[in-house]
């Protein structure tokens, strides 16, 4: 018969229990996994399966009683670390959502909003389309596999029990500014094109006041906006690939990885 001491049992439980919390925290905000259409049971079971799979090869966690207050603190720390890692990747989808919102406003489609009851948000039509495209492209680039690899490697780079005080939280805050900057960078070509169209209609309205510019301008602005999106969309995959690389690199550096 096999005989295990209390320390050995706690060690075996800790090898799965603590990684489960970090992986579950990452799944809560990571693209595709955090989608409301993915059932919570699937997320929990997948996190538990990955924790069971990688737990035996991870560094030895600290021997902590799972029923103590210290164990509860470590569990919250692992959830926070995983959630912050997933938040960095979730900004990729927010970039495309803001891009679609900017383009919709320029085309006069700001009121065309689609309700997403699964995620509890409202998206512009173009924004929702951009988010779906970004998710599929992220999966096509195997970004989800790279992200899972970084989460597993984080247990070596940032061992369990290291806390969250020493994490580069300022870098995470700066990523919010990066999100707005990248969305504006992607939207500038189409926005400038639509600005020139609006200026042209303004000049036409001044030179020919009797012409009904509003009935003519709205369909033309929408049509020219679609042409601008088509032209901008041709270079979007390459730019979005660079953004995915930047986000994954930032995710790796956040837990102490080298650039």
Fold and architecture overview:
It is a single chain. The chain is mainly α and 259 residues long. It has one domain (6-254). Helices cover 72% and strands 3% of the residues. The protein has helices at 6-27, 40-54, 69-107, 125-140, 143-157, 169-207, 213-233, 236-254; strands at residues 113-116, 121-124. It has a two-stranded antiparallel sheet with strand order 1-2. Strand 1 and strand 2 form a beta hairpin. Helix 1 (6-27) packs parallel to helix 3. The radius of gyration is 24 Å and the shape is elongated. Belongs to the FliR/MopE/SpaR family. Keywords: Bacterial flagellum, Cell membrane, Cell projection, Cilium, Flagellum, Membrane, Transmembrane, Transmembrane helix. Role in flagellar biosynthesis. Its main location: membrane.
| Helix-strand sequence | HHHEEHHHHH
Strands, total number: 2
- Which range does the strand content fall in? under 5%
The 3D shape can be described as elongated
Question: In order across it, which strands form the biggest sheet?
Answer: 1-2
Topology, pairings included?
Blueprint (H helix, E strand, L loop, with lengths): L5 H22 L12 H15 L14 H39 L5 E4 L4 E4 H16 L2 H15 L11 H39 L5 H21 L2 H19 L5
Pfam family, one: Bac_export_1
InterPro entries: FliR, T3SS_IM_R
GO cellular component, one term: bacterial-type flagellum basal body
Question: Which short descriptors sum up this protein?
Answer:
cilium; bacterial flagellum; 259 residues; 72% helix; 8 helices; cell projection; flagellum; mainly alpha; T3SS_IM_R
In short:
It is a multi-pass membrane protein. The termini are far apart.
């Amino acid at each position: 018969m096999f005989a295990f001491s209390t320390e050995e049992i706690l060690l075996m439980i800790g090898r799965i229990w603590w990684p489960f919390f970090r992986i579950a925290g990452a799944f809560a905000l990571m693209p595709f996994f955090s989608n409301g259409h993915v059932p919570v049971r699937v997320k929990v079971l997948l996190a538990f399966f990955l924790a069971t799979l990688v737990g035996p090869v991870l560094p030895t966690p600290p021997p902590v009683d799972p029923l103590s207050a210290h164990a509860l603190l470590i569990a919250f720390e692992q959830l926070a670390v995983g959630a912050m890692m997933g938040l960095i990747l979730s900004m990729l989808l927010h970039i495309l959502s803001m891009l679609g919102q900017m383009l919709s406003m320029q085309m006069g489609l700001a009121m065309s909003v689609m309700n997403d009851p699964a995620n509890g948000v409202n998206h512009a039509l173009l924004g929702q389309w951009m988010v779906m495209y970004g998710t599929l492209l992220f999966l096509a680039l195997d970004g989800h596999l790279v992200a899972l690899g970084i989460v597993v490697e984080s247990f070596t780079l940032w061992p369990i029990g290291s806390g969250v005080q020493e994490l580069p939280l300022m870098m995470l805050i700066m990523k919010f500014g990066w999100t707005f900057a990248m969305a504006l960078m992607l939207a500038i070509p189409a926005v400038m094109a639509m600005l020139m169209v609006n200026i042209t209609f303004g000049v036409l309205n001044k030179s020919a006041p009797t012409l009904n510019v509003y009935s003519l301008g709205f369909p033309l602005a929408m049509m020219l906006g679609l042409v601008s999106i088509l032209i901008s969309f041709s270079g979007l995959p390459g730019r979005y690939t660079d953004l995915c690389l930047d986000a994954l690199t930032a995710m790796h550096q956040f837990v102490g990885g080298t650039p």
